[in-house]
Design brief:
Strand order of the largest sheet: 1-2-4-3
Number of helices: 7
Mean pLDDT: 90
Number of domains: 1
Structural class: alpha+beta
Low-confidence stretches: none
Shape: globular
Order of helices and strands: EEHHHHEEHHH
Distance between the termini: 29 Å
Radius of gyration: 16 Å
Helix content: 55-70%
Strand content: 5-15%
Length: 187
Amino acid sequence: MPLFFNIDNRLNFMVEVLLGNDLSAQKLSVIIRQVADTTKRIKLLYTGFISKESRIYGQGRVQLVEALDELFTILLLLRENLNKRTPRELSTTGNNNMRIAVETKINKIVVQGSMSRNDISKIESFNEGYEVLILKEIKDLLIKYKNTLDSEETSLDKYRDLYSGFDDIFYNTILMRYSVENLLIDR
């Protein structure tokens, strides 16, 4: 699945993910398994690079960026799955407190937003940033996702909380990707 990623010198970003029919039709269980597998693979990639070289550079850096891109794309699919399951009366009342705008077009998802230099400077190491900003948030999101879908009650707050969780994870994944790609963190 092609992903186009652009960040300008003001830290405004735009990500375009092209979706094929096979991707958009995936079952929820398959998407969740892919999220779990990809998060584990990223952790293993990082651990392998650090144990050999004690730094992230060269091909290791490229592989981490590609794995973060894959995770980002799979999480977008999970969010699209939530969109399909969100009751119509809830989906019409948007949450304007998001840092990232996600727009679904025909066979494409476009994500836009802006990063803060202050947020970028807070990430001191890949391991710490990944564990706290991404992995922990994904675990919390998946639990909330399951509880929301299993619930008989359709609460606007539950769905807003899920979309807010996606917003945080997308933003933090973009921060980590930018930091790794631009050698702002190398351990």
